[in-house]
Amino acid sequence: MAINIGISEKDRERTAASLSQMLADSFTLYLKTHNFHWNVTGPMFQTLHIMFMDQYTELWNALDMIAERIRALGYPAPGSYARYMELSKIEGEDGVPKAKEMIRQLVAGQEAVIRAARETFKIADAAGDQSTADLMTQRMEIHEKNAWMLRSLLEDDTAEPAPAPKKKRAK
């Protein structure tokens, strides 16, 4: 049956293709985050173990929303490791890096997903696809927060605090 939801076939196809990359990036980040959850060690173990679990659980739930949006647009969602490897811009990790390297890799992964969501948002917005644009706005917000939280763990605790903002003079 033909799909008639007010978005042209060309726009639905372009949006679904962009969502497919978003799905692949999200799945790759999910897998990497879960791997790091299992394998993290060191003084930050408890903090990272819990943080990674929160992040991979959230990612797992998001995968379904992204895949179902692709289906709602009338296209099959990619669902194999091989296809994800073709589509994803996130590097996999076969080893077990030190905790700080795990954090660096996850920041890079979160930022890659943010860029993918931003690109998908632009495509969806231009097509008048508010549902996809809304989903991408939600994904950007979550991944920007995750990246910030991870990045904060890499800050040098010996650095001097930033100066307080100067007060404006009353006229």
UniProtKB/TrEMBL annotation:
Keyword DNA-binding: yes
A Pfam family: Ferritin
Residue span, Ferritin/DPS domain: 17-156
Keyword Cell membrane: no
GO MF annotation, one: DNA binding
InterPro entries in the cross-refs: DPS_DNA-bd (IPR002177), DPS_DNA-bd_CS (IPR023188), Ferritin-like (IPR012347), Ferritin-like_SF (IPR009078), Ferritin_DPS_dom (IPR008331)
CDD domains named among the record's database cross-references: DPS (cd01043)
Keywords from the named record: DNA-binding
Family named by the database record: Belongs to the Dps family.
PANTHER family: DNA PROTECTION DURING STARVATION PROTEIN, GENERAL STRESS PROTEIN 20U
This protein's name: Starvation-inducible DNA-binding protein
Species per Swiss-Prot/TrEMBL record: Formivibrio citricus
Lineage: Bacteria, Pseudomonadati, Pseudomonadota, Betaproteobacteria, Neisseriales
